[in-house]
Amino acid sequence: MVKKIVNTSGKRKTAVARASVKKGKGLVRINKKPVELYEPEIARWKILEAVNIAGGHTNKVNIDVSVGGGGFMSQASAVRTAIAKGLVEYTGDPSLKLAFLDHDRSLLVSDSRRKEPKKPLGRGARKKRQKSYR
Fold this sequence. Notes:
It is a single chain. The protein is an alpha+beta fold. It has a single domain (5-107), classed as Ribosomal Protein S5, domain 2. The chain has helices spanning 41-54, 72-91, 94-103, and strands at residues 5-12, 15-23, 28-30, 33-34, 61-68. Strands 1-2-5-3-4 form a five-stranded mixed β-sheet. Strand 3 (28-30) and strand 4 (33-34) form a beta hairpin.
C-alpha cells in the first residue's frame, strides 16, 4: 500500500507556506500548533475559510503547514492558499475546485505582486526628490 501525501505551497508578498496533506482524522496544524490556537484571531478566520468551504473533505485528512516570512496577514493568506491547493490536489474533486474559485480566486492562485525596485534619484520606487528653481 502506497501512502498518498500531497505537498503544496502558497505565497503572498514575502510569506511562503508549505502544506502537506495526508490521510488522517481532520487535524490542521500551522507550525506544529493546532489551527484552533493560532493567533491573532482575524488571521485564524482567514485560514479557516478554506477549511470551512471544503466541509467534509477535511475530516479524512491531516494538514501540516509550515509558514515563514512576511507579516501575520500575509502568512494567513499564504496558508489558506496552500491548504486549498492541497485539498483540491488530494481529493481530485472538480466541484471543490469550483467552490474555492466561486468564493475567492486567491484560494487557489498565489499572489504574484512584489515590491517595485527603488530607482536612482528617488527615495523609493516612484517618489522623487523635489526640485526648487526659485
